[in-house]
Design brief:
- There is one protein chain.
- The chain is mainly beta.
- It has 3 domains: 102 residues, no CATH class; 108 residues, Thrombin, subunit H, CATH 2.40.10; 101 residues, Thrombin, subunit H.
- Helices cover 13% and strands 34% of the residues.
- A hairpin with a 6-residue loop joins strand 8 and strand 9.
- The protein starts with a helix and ends with a strand.
- The N terminus is likely disordered.
Length: 337
């Protein structure tokens, strides 16, 4: 019963956040002021920051969830927030001050963003080969950490230069799609980062400047991409995206809020950084009781995720909400039906 209640509340507050209910009386109104975001407003008035996608998608006057304007009015219902259709120009300083004074009892919402820190796993197509590998650790040690000296099989023969940085990683076996069995690429697990200090013809010495996990001889190297570390701006999907969960960073089949996962929604499917999508599961109809009168049931809503990085055939995402256990092979959609 508790699970059904949570699901009902999530659906009512998020998916149908701004659909009018006949005869229902608003609880209050609020005028947007500087610093407000849909994330903060959803958390403040609906007690759940993850309800903002429904507010956003069902209110066309809002074109960007981070750019709601001072002076706009929102109408607060018990289960949703509606944005008044009129769009007001920016307020004059004296008017803005008066508005802010009138709302002093409600603190300003803080911005919320998602950050890629470079430690997340990703799927790399099989044709990609390592640039090199670690062949030893100073002092014949078996595990290296930050500030340790290591040796690589890269040198001047590969046009290597002192000062270059490389990502240290381990590569697991190829990941196959749980539904189509298509090979989606190898899962790359970042272990750390090193910088080349001395270069020989076919070898080099380097220092570990960051480590995320244990680094051992045999670990692979690829040129370091500093652009992996950045903030992700939330954005509405441009089309009705659909896909599947195909792998998790940990390798576990059961996924929960806070987990890094991989999907088959790549650049070709229209996936973009910042897209917030829903995780759902189709409900099987028992024809013994429906007697053929019902062809489909509402999808079971399991949670939501945000795409953090896209590649050609896949994307890496963060699960931001889980209502029930989520499994590899569950579906991903832009809208719940």
């Amino acid at each position: 019963m508790k699970r059904e209640l949570l699901l009902l509340l999530f659906l009512a507050g998020c998916i149908f956040a701004s659909r009018a209910v006949s005869g229902e009386t608003p609880q209050a109104t609020y005028v947007i002021k500087r610093g407000d975001t849909l994330w903060g407003l959803s958390e403040r008035f609906l007690n759940d920051p993850y309800c903002w996608p429904g507010v956003w998608s069902d209110n066309p006057v809002i074109t960007n969830p981070h750019l709601i304007y001072e002076g706009q009015k929102i109408i607060i219902f018990p289960d949703r927030i509606e944005v008044a259709p009129e769009s007001k120009p920016p307020l004059k300083p004296e008017t803005r001050m008066a508005k802010e004074e009138s709302n002093q009892d409600i603190p300003a919402a803080e911005e919320r963003s998602f950050v890629i820190n470079g430690t997340e796993s990703f799927l790399e197509l099989d044709e990609t080969r390592p640039f090199g590998s670690i062949i030893g650790i100073y002092g014949d040690r078996m595990i290296a950490g930050e500030d340790d000296i290591v040796f690589t099989d890269m040198g001047r023969a590969q046009n290597l230069k002192g000062g270059e940085k490389f990502l240290v990683y381990s590569a697991e076996s190829s990941v196959s799609h749980p539904v189509t069995n298509e090979i989606m690429g190898r899962k790359i697990i970042p272990l750390g980062m090193l910088q080349i200090t001395n270069v020989e013809k076919r070898s080099s010495r380097a220092i570990i400047i960051r480590n995320f996990k244990e680094i051992v001889p045999g670990a692979y190297l690829m040129p370091y991409r500093d652009d992996r570390r950045h903030e992700v701006t939330l954005k509405l999907p441009k089309r009705d995206i659909k896909g599947y969960l195909i792998e998790s960073q940990s390798g576990a089949n059961i996924i929960a809020s806070g987990d890094i996962v991989h999907t088959d929604i790549g650049e070709a499917e229209g996936g973009e950084q910042g897209n917030l999508l829903y995780i759902v599961r189709d409900v099987t109809i028992d024809q013994r009781y429906s007697e053929g009168r019902i062809n489909r049931l509402p999808q079971e809503l399991l949670g939501a995720l945000v795409i953090l990085e896209t590649r050609k055939k896949s994307s890496m995402a963060l699960v931001v909400k889980s209502i029930d256990a989520i499994y590899i092979g569950d579906r991903i959609v832009a809208r719940v039906k």
